[in-house]
Amino acid sequence: MTEGNQAGGQAPRTMFQKIWDKHVVHQPEGEQAILYIDLHLVHEVTSPQAFEGLRLAGRSVRRPELTIATPDHNVPTVNRSLPIADEISRIQVDTLRENCREFDVQLYDLDSPNQGIVHVIGPEMGYTQPGMTIVCGDSHTATHGAFGSLAFGIGTSEVEHVLATQTLLQYKPRTMRLNVDGQLGAGVTAKDVILYLIGKLGTAGGSGYVIEFSGSVFRDLSMERRMTVCNMAIEAGARAGMIAPDATTFEYLQGRQQAPADMAAAIRQWEQLPSDEAASFDAEHSYAAADIAPQVTWGTNPGQVAPITDCVPDPAACEDDTERRGMESALAYMGLDPGKPLQDLAIDRVFIGSCTNSRIEDLRAAAQVLKGYQISADVQAMVVPGSGLVKRQAEDEGIDTVFQDAGFEWREAGCSMCLAMNPDKLEPGERCASTSNRNFEGRQGKDGRTHLVSPEMAAAAAIRGCFVDVREWDFQ
Amino acid sequence: MQSFTVHTGLAVAMDRANVDTDQIIPKQFLKRIQRSGFGQFLFFDWRLDPEGNPNPDFELNRPAAAGCSVLLARQNFGCGSSREHAVWALADYGIRSVIAPSFADIFYNNCFKNGLLPVVAEESVVDQLMQRAELGDYQLTVDLENYQLRDSVGLDVAFEVDDSRRHSLLHGLDDISLTLQQEQRITDYEAARGA
User: Fold this and answer.
1) pLDDT tens digit sequence for A9-31
2) Residues in contact with B148: Cβ distance below 8 Å, sequence separation at least 6, in sequence order
3) pLDDT digits 0-9 by tens, A264-273
C-alpha cells in the first residue's frame, strides 16, 4: 500500500509473489521451482510412510528444528489417561512418537498441554508467522495463510521430500483476489463468509489458484476468524488462501512462545508483505458483505450451500446435466426433498470443533447462544476444543460449564468428528449440525448427514432441535 | 517409482463429478502405517453394502469392469483431503491412468509420485470416451511418450503434461534424489538467509 512496498523500483507484486520470490532456491526454465519451506507440521496419519521412506533410503530430517509434530486425527477425546483402545490407531500414534524420537523432531504428545489440532497449535504457539512458507500433510494447512504466509497441504511423498530436503518442487500457481467489502450483519460470521464464497466459486472454482482474501470484511476480522476463512480455501479447490498481515496479526503474535525475539524488526519486515497497490491478479471477484446471511450446506460438498432463509433447492431447475445429477444424488444421500425450508430440518447431533471452528472465540460465541438454554431432548451435542490450551482457557473462563449446563459433552482436543477417525462418529441416517469443513458422504460416519454451519448456528440448532436463523436469537 | 510410458487397458466410466478422496479411500483405512495393500479398500463405501457384499450397481463392480486399468471421470476428481492413500488405493487396485476434465491440485500432484498418470481432457472428449466405454470392453491407449489418447476405432486426442513431471514419470525417477542433486543450492540458500 505504501511506496516502501515497491522499494528497488521492482514491478508491483502480490503478497503471494513476494513470498514466492523469497523462497525460490532454484528455478530451472519451464520446470518446477525448488521452493524452501520454513515450517513443516506433521501428524500421525500422513507421516509414517514418509519417515519409513527416509529410513529405507538412509536419509535424515534436514532441518528438524523447522519441523513440529502432534497426534490429532485419530486420538480419542475421552479417557486420555488410558491407552488408545483401537489398536491400529494406537500403533499409528506410537509410530509418530518413535519417528519423532528417532529423527529428533519436536513432538507435542498426548500428555502435552500444547497437544491439539495441528492447525490450531501452530498459530497459538507462535510458530505460524507472516511471510513464511508452511506445509503439512493435510489439506487444511491453508489455515495458516491467515497470517500472510503461503501455506498449503501436501501428500505423503511430499512430506518425505520436505523432511529430506526442507524444500518442495512446485509449479507457480495463479493468483486470485476475492474482495468482500462492507459490514457483516449481526449473527453473520467468518464461517458464513467463506461458505458463501465457496457457494459462489464452486468447489473447483479456486483450482490452481492461491486466493488472497481482501477488503474491509477481512480487515475487521480477528486472527481466529481469519483462520476460519483461510482454512476453507481448499474447499473452493484453491491451493492456498491468504490475508495480508496487519496490526491485528502483529498483536496476536506478540508474546507468543515462538514469536521472534525482536518483534519490532520482524514487524518492519512483515509490513512489506501486503500486495502492492498496482499488483495485478490472474482473477478477481468482488462481493458485498450485506448480501451474506448465515449459511447452511444442504448437499454433499461445501459448495452445495444456501442461506438459512432458503429452501432445499430443486435439481430440476438446474440446467447443467452433471451438476443436476450431483444434486439429485446429494439430496438422496441427505434424505431431503426439494422445497423444504432449511429452518424446518430436524437434527440429531451437533458437533462444535475442527480446525475450522474450535478456537476460543468460536467456543465463546457458541456459549453466548447457549447461555440460559438446554439443548433439545432429541439432540446429542459435543464440543471438542482445538487444543489443550484452548480447553484450559475455556475452563478458566467458565465456558465449559455453560456447555455442560446446556447439555453438551465437553471433550479433549483433537480432530474428532470432523473426519471420524476416532470413536466420535455419526450413526447411519443421523443428521448433524457441524462446525467442521466437509460434508462429503460418510465424512462424519457411514451414511451420516452433515450440514456445515457456524458455531453460533450449531449452538442455536442444538437448543431448538432444528436449524434456526441465529440473527433472530433471543440471547439470555 | 513405477514408470509410465504407454499403457493400453480396459477403460471404465465413473460418471460423477466431485469424487472426493473420502470416497476413494474412507478414513477408517488411513490408520495403516504401510504404503501398500490399500486396493481392497478402494471406494469401500460405494463398492460394498453394509453387510460387506459387493454393490452390483457400482461402476467398478460390473462384470464388464473386471480388470480395468483406466478410469474415466468427471470434473474435480480427487477433491478434498490431501491423503495420498487415495492414489495408493487406485494404483494398488490396478488403475494406471485417470482421465477427467479437471483434478483437485493435491490429488493431481500425488498421482505423479506414484506412477499413475492423470490426464486432463476436454469435457466433450470425456463424453465421447464414456460413450465408448459404455459399449463394453473398451481398450484405450494412454501414450505419455506422444501425449496422446487413442483407441482402435479412430480416436486420436492430444493431451498436455508438464515437462518435468512427464520426464520423471517416463523414467520412474524419484523426486527426492533429483532435488538432492541440487543440495549445494539449498545449502547456499540457507547460508544466504542466515537460517
Assistant:
1) 679 999 999 999 999 999 998 88
2) B141, B156, B157, B158, B159
3) 999 999 999 9
Interface test with A, best of B1, B16, B18 (most A CBs within 10 A): B18
Indicate the pTM of the whole model: 0.96
Which residues from A are below 8 Å from B17, CB to CB? 322-323, 326
Of B50, B79, B175, the CB nearest to A203: B79
Question: For residue B24, which residues of chain A lie inside 8 Å, CB to CB?
Answer: none
| A126-160: pLDDT as tens digits | 999 999 999 999 999 999 999 999 999 999 999 99
User: Which of A36, A154, A428 shows the shortest C-beta gap to B106?
Assistant: A154
Closest CA–CA distance from residue A396 to any residue of chain B (Å): 34
Specify burial of residue A370 (Cβ count, 10 A radius: 0-12, 13-18, 19+).
buried
Domain B6-192 indexed as CATH 3.30.1390.10: no
Alpha carbons B182 and B131: distance in angstroms, whole number = 47
Chain B residue numbers with beta carbons less than 8 Å from the beta carbon of A59 are: 176
* pLDDT surpasses 50 at B125: yes
- With CA atoms as reference, the chain A residue closest to B163 would be A31
Q: What are the residue ranges spanned by the domains of chain B?
A: 6-192
Residues of chain A with C-beta less than 8 angstroms from the C-beta of B164: 28, 31-32, 169
Residue from B19, B20, B27, B124 whose CB has the most chain A CBs within 10 Å, to mutate? B27
Contact criterion met (CB < 8 Å) for A49 and B105: no
Put simply, the answer to whether B186 touches A166 (Cβ < 8 Å) is yes
CA distance A128 to A316: 46
